[in-house]
Design goal:
With 282 residues, the chain is mainly alpha-helical. The chain is 65% helix and 2% strand. A two-stranded antiparallel sheet has the order 1-2. Helix 3 packs antiparallel against helix 4 and helix 3 packs parallel to helix 5.
Amino acid sequence: METPFPPFEPNGPPDDSGRGPRLREIPLRLIIPNLITILAICAGLTGIRLAFENRYELAVGMVLLAAFLDGIDGRVARLMKATSKFGAQMDSLADIVNFGVAPALVVYVFALDQARSIGWIAALIYSIAAGLRLARFNVMAERENKATWQSEYFVGVPAPAGAMLVLLPVYLGFLGLTTDRTFAYFSSVYTVLIAFLLISRLPVWSGKSEGSRLRRDLVLPVMLGVVLYVALLSSFTWEVMVVTAVIYLLTLPFGARKWKRKYGTLTIEEPGVGEDDIGRHI
C-alpha cells in the first residue's frame, strides 16, 4: 500500500547538483605517456642536483636520459592512441626543464661559473632561447593549415639537439681538457652560439617526411651501424658524444644548402605573418 505522504528527510530532499561530475575509470594506457613525462622531469631535476654535488658524469647522464624520455613520450602516446590536451601541456612544461634549464645549469656549474657573471649570462641566454624555441614550435604545431615543408625541416635547431650540443664543453672536460677560466670564456661563447642556433630561422633537416626512404640494400648496413654506434657509446661514452655533437654541427650547412636549392633562400621565411601571432612573428 502506497503512503500518501513522502518519506521524512531531516536534511531536505537530496540535491545532486552540487556533487559535480562523477569520477570515472581511466584506461591505463592514457596514464603511461604522462608517467614517462613525469619520469623525464624527475631525471632532469636530479641531474641538476647531481651537478651541484659535483657528480658531473651522473648529472650529464640524467640530463641525457631526461632528453631521451621527453623525446619518446609523445611517440608512445600516439602509438597507444593516448594523446590528450593534458599530456600536451605536461610535455611542454617538461621540455623547458629538460632541454632548457637542466643543461644550462649543468654546464654553468661545471665550467661557466669560472667566467663569473659572463658565464651566468650565457646560461640565462641559452635557457631563454630554449623557451622561445619551444614556444615557437608549439605555435607552429597548432596551425590548422601547415606548410608542406614542416614535415621535412625544423625552424632552427630543435631543443633536444640543443641540449645535447650545449653539453659539449662538459664532454670535453670529461676527456681531460683543462677547465680553467679561458675554457670558461670559450664555453660561454659556445653556449650563446647554440642559443642563437635554437632561435634562428636556419632550416634543419628533420628526416621525418614521408619522402625520406632508404634503399632496400642499405637497411641491414644501417641497422648494423646503429648497433655499432650504441656499442661504442656504451664503451667510449664521452668520445662518442663529442663526435656526435661535432658531426651534427657540421651537417647544419648541408641542410641549409638543400633548402636553398629547393626554395631559393638560406633561411625559412613565412609569408602572411599576422601581428596577433607573436610566435610566427618571432
